[in-house]
Amino acid sequence: MSESIMNVESTVIDGSFTQPLESTRLPQTSNWSPNNTTIRSSKTIPCVTKSEQQLYKLYAQALADSEVTQDWSSWVEMMAINCQKCCSEAEISHPIAFRTGRQTQLSRNIRMLQVERDSWLLWNRARDTLNNIRQDLPEVIPGSSDRLIVEHHLINDPQLRMAKAVQGWLQAIKLDERYQADLKMAMTKLEPKRIYWEKTCHFLKSSYNANLPNPYITCLDFDATHKQKRRLCDTDEQEENDLLQIVFSLLRVGEYSKAKSICKSTGYHWLAALLSANELYHDENYYCSEASDITYPVEGNQKRIQWIESMYELSMDMRLKLYERAIYGLLCGRIEALIPVCKTYVDYLWAYTSCYIEQEIHYILMRAHEHELTDIEKHRVLSDHGLENHQLKMPSIFDEILAGCPTHIRDEAVLPFNAIQKYLILADYDRLFHSILSFLHTNSESNGSLLRFASHICLFLYEQNHSEKFNQNTFIEILTTYIHHLIELEFKDLVCYYISKLPPNDQSTIMAKFLDTLSNRQDKEFYLKQGFTYKIDIDTSLLILAGNQRRDQTFDKENNEEIISTNSKCLNENDHKQLEALKLLTTFLSTQTIDALRFANLICRYFLNDAKYEGIRISLSYFPHDIDVHIIEANNRQQSEDDIREFKAFGAYIAALEAIQRWLVDITNVHQTLPDNENRQIEMSILRHKYIPMLACNLFRIFDLVKHEQETFRLIVFLSDSRKQQLYT
Description:
membrane
C-alpha cells in the first residue's frame, strides 16, 4: 500500500441540518452539503464499526466537494483514503476477527471493506496512469537508450500504460500487513554469508583433506547440480529453496531492490546479477551537454534481447527448482513458468499482466533493433509462427485466465468485485453497468461495500459525461437501488442528495417513494425542505405521493343506503394518509394549487360514497373558506371553474347535512316538555314530507339534464317502495 494512502487521515466534521426554514417556498440554492448532516438512524446496522457507517457520509461529502471544485482526480483519491481509513479502524478495533477469521460475519465484512478499498486504489492508479503522460521526453539517439524507446511507445499505447498500472496495483494490494509479517518471518531463516552453499563447500574441504567419498557437487557453478548430476548438502538445499521462495515473494510485490539485496547478503551474487540484467539499457551521457564534466554510469543491460531469449529457455527447464523457474518466467514473460506458483485469482491476474508487459517490451525492442539482430535471434519473436502471433493481449488476459485455471480460481474470478475491476481495467463501461445490475438482481441480501463502490463509480462516469458508453436506464436502476439501500438503513439525511443525482424525470418518483416510507408528517416536511434545496421538483413528488395514497381505493356503485345517511363512518389508516398527503400538497405546492384542489375533490368523492363525512370536513379545512377562481394561477383559471364548483358542492353538502341534523331532526329531548311540543312535531313531520319530494324533484331535474335515464328510473323505484318511510322517519 502506498504510504500516502496509508498515512493520510480524513477529517470528519459532524453537523446537523436541523435548522427550521422560515418558509416552505424558499429560493432554491445549492449551498447545502452532506457534510452538514448527521446520519440519523434508529436501526441496528450490520456494519463492522461506526466508521463504516460514517463511510456513507464521507462518500457523499467527497462527491459534493468535487462537484464544486471539479477536481475529480482528487475525488477518486479521497474515496480511496476514506475507505482505507475505515479498513484500518476496523482491523484495529477487531483484531481477532481480522487475524483469525473466527467471527465469520465480522471477518467477512472486513474482507469486503478491504476489497472495496482495493478497488478504489485500482481506479485511482489507473486514472493517474492514463491521464498523466510524460510530455518532455527527448528524442531517442540511436544506440543510446532502450528505456526511452519503451517510454516513447507508452505515450501512444494506453493499453500498455493500463497494464503497468494494474501490475503496480496488484503488487501494492498484496503487500499488506500480513504479507509483510510473513516475509519478515521467512527472512529470519536466512543467515548472512559471503558465499552460497556454505555447508557443501565446508564438506568438500573436509573430504578433500580426509580422502572421504563425495556425493556432492565439486564446483561452485550455479548450474553445477545439473551439469554434474550431483546434489547439495541438505542444509544448503533447504536454504536455497527458502531463498528462491523469498526472492519470488519480493518480486511479487515489486521489491526488486530488496530481492537483489538479500541475494547479495546470502552469497547469491549470481542471482542478484541475473535480476539486474532485466533492467532497460540507458546511457545518460548521450543526452548531456558538451560542456558537462560529469560522466554518468551506464544503466541496464544492452544485450537484454539476447538475455531474454536465454531466460525463455531456462524458465521451462524442469531440472530447475519450482520458484527458480517462476523467477525466470517473470523476467522473460513466460506465463507457463508462473502459473504453478499462483494460488489465488489475484496472483493469476498479476502473472498474466506481468508477462504481457514483458512480452510487449521485448517485442518493442526487437522491432527497434531488428536490423541489428541475426535471423536466429529474430526467429522466436518475429517469424510467422513466432511471439508476434501468440503474445498476450490485455483484453484477452481475462479469457486466458478462465480458460486455463482451476475451478476455485474460476469461481473467484466471477465474484462481483473482480468482475467490476475487470471492466474498469478494460474501460468497458456498458458491460460494467450490466454486470453490476446482474449482481444486484441475483443477490437477495444487499452488500453495502459493493453497492457503495458500484454506485459511486457509476456516478463518477455519469458526471464525466461517459453516458454515451452505457444505457442510462441501467445507471438509473443502480443508483435507485443504492437510494433504497440508504432508506433501508435509515440514512435519511443522505437520501435527497442522491435523488438529486438522478435525471430530473426520475427524481420525483423516487422522492415520492421516500416520503411514503416516512412515518410522520414532521419528517415529510423536513425532507421536503431538504429536497427543495437540492432543486428536486417537490411539486411533482407530492402529486405522485398523493396519487400513490389512493391506489387501493374502490368506488362502490351500490352504496345507496350509506350515501343518504347522516351518520358519518370512521376514517381508516389509508384515509388518514390521503388527508396527510393533501395537507402536504396545500402546504408545499408552489405553483400547483389547482392540482391540490383536484386531489381534494377526488378523495372527497370517495369519502362521500363511503359516508365518511369527517374526511370531507378535514379536506375542506385545508383550503380558504372563500376560495374562488381568482386565487388560481392565471393559466389554470378557465379549466378550474368546474373543479371549484365541485369543491364548493362538497361544502354545501356537508352544510346541508348539518342543517338537517340541526333543524329537521331533533337530537335532544328538550322540546318534549314544552307546551307546544305536539303541534311542533306535527309541523316538523309535514316539513320532512315536503323536503323529500323537493329533493327528489331536484334529482329528477339533474338526471334529466345529464340524460341519466337509468338513475331516474331507480329514483322512482326507491320513492315508491317501503324504504321511503325509513327516510321520512
